[in-house]
Design goal:
By secondary structure, the chain is of the alpha/beta class. It has a single domain, classed as 3-Layer(aba) Sandwich (Rossmann fold), CATH 3.40.50. The chain is built from twelve helices and eleven strands. The chain has a seven-stranded mixed beta sheet, sandwiched between helices. The chain has a four-stranded antiparallel beta sheet with strand order 2-1-4-5. Strand 9 and strand 10 form a beta hairpin. Helix 5 crosses helix 6. It binds adenosine-5'-triphosphate, iron/sulfur cluster and magnesium ion. Magnesium ion (MG) binds next to helix 1. The site of adenosine-5'-triphosphate has 13 residues, from strand 2 and helix 1. One of its GO terms (biological process) is peptide transport.
Length: 353
């Protein structure tokens, strides 16, 4: 039986929009995250995809307690992290670490690699006594495929891929159980992306890690994820095992996203139908009523403006079996012809970039 390590329910983050300098009056809210639910099982990777601005990073920040939710709960091993404070919160935070997108800006240029990777030990000295830190940091460098002798070098002396390895080593320093990786390879060259993904794959087995892996590149997410959630305007609109989402999507938004993924095989490319979405993503300050995707959906009907489709197996699919039967927040969810999505290149081996 799979055991959930994280259970997220009814998660909201609304940033108030105010007017006036002295008497700040709230005139609305940026609904960055607007009702997100998912579970993460032990040892699994949940991919989260969606267009820019849909709220992926805000979810990530709430998971690692860099942002406080407006509402909702985040349970780690059954305990609601959002209700904890002081020592109890610190103990939980140790177990959920983040790896950031941009290895160029997320590392302090004036600190040595040894200080960067060992910094979490300042907050949690119980994990590594002072006299033992250097050895631990060198072990971590070795684990992520960097020469332990580089411990006194500075970030600018490394390539982009190497810097992301440093970011991963820092994420591992406290031996967490969950890693939230927010676009960890988006800033890297394609060939280096594969190496970092393969490294993360290996570390997952070695350290028994569970990952929340955020990206906008659908093929990369498929390569690493066991399950995938698709976000639109602050909410997950479809979620399931990777083959269910990639080969049997039932939500029109997922179908449109997949239809835009480059396909290397010219024959497959010719066969598929590219779905061009109408209009722009609405502002998160003004989310459409009913189904939030309706202003861009080619299947929208009157009902879609009145009813909010829940993220669940749609009633009309419940009696069926097969991969199209999974959670999809669409009143008219149905399988379209599968759109083949190539996996990310993985034949480069892990090697050092
Ligand atoms: N501190 C803040 N105050 C107000 N609005 C914010 C704040 N942080 C994020 N937002 C808004 O919330 C929405 C979601 O932002 P978020 O960074 O989570 O999106 P994202 O999916 O990570 O996008 P990207 O793919 O570009 O990284 C955006 O409209 C953003 O402008
Ligand atoms: S509920 Fe209606 S508008 Fe929303 S995705 Fe389904 S068909 Fe489109
Ligand atoms: Mg982001």
């Amino acid at each position: 039986m799979a055991e959930p390590i994280l259970e997220v329910s009814g998660l909201y983050k609304h940033y108030p929009l105010t007017q006036g300098v002295v008497l700040k009056k709230q005139i609305g809210a940026v609904k960055a995250v607007d009702g997100v639910d998912f579970t993460l099982d032990r040892g699994e990777t949940l991919g989260i995809v969606g267009e820019s601005g849909c709220g992926k990073s805000t979810v990530a920040k709430m998971l690692v307690n860099l942002e406080k939710p407006t509402a909702g709960s985040i349970k780690y091993r059954g305990e609601d992290v959002t209700k904890l404070s002081g020592r109890a919160l610190k103990a939980v935070r140790r177990n959920i670490q983040m790896v950031f997108q941009d290895p160029y800006t997320s590392l302090n240029p004036r600190m040595t690699v040894g200080d960067i990777i060992g910094e979490p030990y300042d907050i949690h000295p119980e994990v590594a006594p002072k006299g033992d830190r250097r050895r631990r940091v060198q072990d971590l460098l070795d684990v992520v495929g960097l020469n332990p002798e580089y411990i006194n070098r500075y970030p600018h002396q490394f390539s982009g891929g190497q810097r992301q390895r440093i970011g991963i080593a820092r994420g591992l320093a406290l031996r967490p159980e969950v890693i939230v990786a927010d676009e960890p390879v988006s800033a890297l060259d394609v060939s280096v992306q594969a190496q970092v993904i393969n490294l993360m794959d290996r570390l997952q087995n070695e350290f028994d890690l569970s990952y929340v892996f955020i990206a906008h590149d659908l093929s990369i997410v498929r390569h690493i994820s066991d399950r995938v959630g698709v976000m639109y305007l602050g909410r997950i609109v479809e979620i399931g095992r990777d083959a269910e989402i990639y080969d049997h999507p039932t939500h029109p938004y997922t179908q449109a996203l997949l239809s835009a993924v480059p396909v290397p095989d010219p024959e497959a490319r010719e066969q598929r139908e590219r779905i061009i979405l109408a209009g722009d993503v609405p502002s998160p300050t003004n989310i459409p009523s009913g189904c939030r995707f309706r202003t861009r959906c080619w299947k929208a009907q009157e009902r879609c403006a009145l009813e909010v489709p829940p993220l669940a197996v749609p009633p009309h699919l419940r009696l069926l079996t097969g991969p199209a039967v999974h959670d999809s927040a669409c009143l008219f969810a149905e399988e379209k012809q599968a759109v083949p999505v190539g996996e990310a290149p993985d034949d480069h081996g892990e090697g050092s970039p």
